[in-house]
Amino acid sequence: MLTNNLKRHSPTIAIIGGGLGGSLCACFFAKHDFQVHLFELRPDIRTQKTVKGRSINMALSRRGHDSLAYINCAEMIANTGVPLYARMMHDENGHTCAFPYGPYEKDPNHMILSVERDALSKCLLDEASKSSNITIHFEHKFISWNRDTKEALFCTSSGTQVKFNVDFIIGFDGSYSSVRAAMMKTEKINLTQEYLDLYYMEINIPAKDGQFAMPENYLHIWPRHKFVIIASPNQDKSFNATLILPISMFDSLSTSEEVLQFFQQYFPDVLSFIGSDEIIKTFRSSTPRPLITIKCSTYVSSAGDMLLMGDAAHSMAPFYAQGMNAAFEDCLVLFETLKQTNFDFQKAFIAYK
């Protein structure tokens, strides 16, 4: 058993989860000169050739932009994305109709920005790595928290258990939060967890002759009653598309012929953009992933030393396009509360909503 006595600038914060929200939250604390230790279960995605997991594009709205502006990196992130001015609906005959998000001629700042998840994650990790107040620990799995000794227990990728002395813990570790599980052993937390009947699969729509296959400044949607495809543009002229289906329909598409017939009937234009061979290749190499929603009745421990944020507290289905923005806004709300309490962490955590 190893013990790490971290630098004792009071207080020292441990953020569990080095994804989008956790990295941003670490930068918030570092901006106010607090020592932060950011723990991530996975390896550093910046060193991985292929990042496994969800790669659904992020739709960055105004509240997400404001959160990034707090740490002065909104413009940098904006340069990695593609602006979206409207939703474009596609019917089964290939006809389209655009629905603008708002009066952009009057206020272009209110557009939605399509950003690749991995690119955004890497940018935020790069930003966190620049700060001397942030130490990032990859491949560290959170196990438990001892309130009396202020020790957080982790397990590394080698199987070694390591203890870190910290003052406060923030769980930004997603829908299957280990911090939330630890809190529920000692706290009265009402939790609603629902698996949707809908599953999703990622599909790539490549560039056509070096250009976008569809108009680029739109969120493209193919609504089909109980299922849908949603596609958003990337700077390399491709689109990240997400097929969302009931699991029973995914199960029914077991042969190449059934897959092609399905796309010919419901998404003929998508099939023309991608091609039959690529659609079949995608279905053979991909596994549909489940969608889960989480709601908690309280986000904070009774002692005010543990806090849940982002998907650990309130995950939602991706077709609402608000999960990341809500997680980013969590950081703004927390720091508004910290300022109101003159950075009394216990009072701020308990008051946080």
UniProtKB/TrEMBL annotation:
This protein's record includes keyword NADP: yes
GO annotations of cellular component type: mitochondrial outer membrane
GO biological process, one term: kynurenine metabolic process
Names of the cofactor(s): FAD
One Pfam family cited in the UniProt record for this chain: FAD_binding_3
Every FAD-binding domain range: 13-338
Protein origin, superkingdom: Eukaryota
Listed transmembrane segments: 12-30
Identification of the protein by name: FAD-binding domain-containing protein
Organism: Adineta steineri
